[in-house]
Amino acid sequence: PPPFSPLLPPGSLTVPSGPGWRYEEGINGVFLSGDVQMTDGKLQVTAGGLYLLYGQFALTCTAPTCPPSTISLQLRCTSSPRPLLTVPLALPDDAGPNPARSGLAQAVGQLQPGDVLSLKLDGDVAGDRWQLAQDEREGNFVGLLRIAGG
Fold this sequence. Notes:
Strand order of the largest sheet: 2-3-10-6-7
Helix content: under 10%
Order of helices and strands: EEEEEEEEEEEE
Strand content: 35-45%
Structural class: mainly beta
Radius of gyration: 15 Å
């Protein structure tokens, strides 16, 4: 089950192309399987089937105060207009320096060979006051596990 960390430049949630992918080695028992392939910063499905999709993320307020808001991290696929997975996060108005963390979200989705997966942040976040939590990067991830053949 490959976990992927969404990447954003520090201090910004406004990324026109969306967060990128980064596979991190070193997590015991986790590997990049042959079911997906990383090419030119894109994650492409090589084996179709039913997949368990999961993820969570955390944001940190980088200003003295940040407005409350709601944002979601979406896992999207080129073959579907709807997100395969949505990870919601309510941003409090009193977060201070502590990260606001989403719960673990999961879904099951059908993927086909050739599907390209992407990440999108969706929501009402004004300015560059919120950023992905940098000190707890292991809490920012999306993963997928093929559970049945295509």
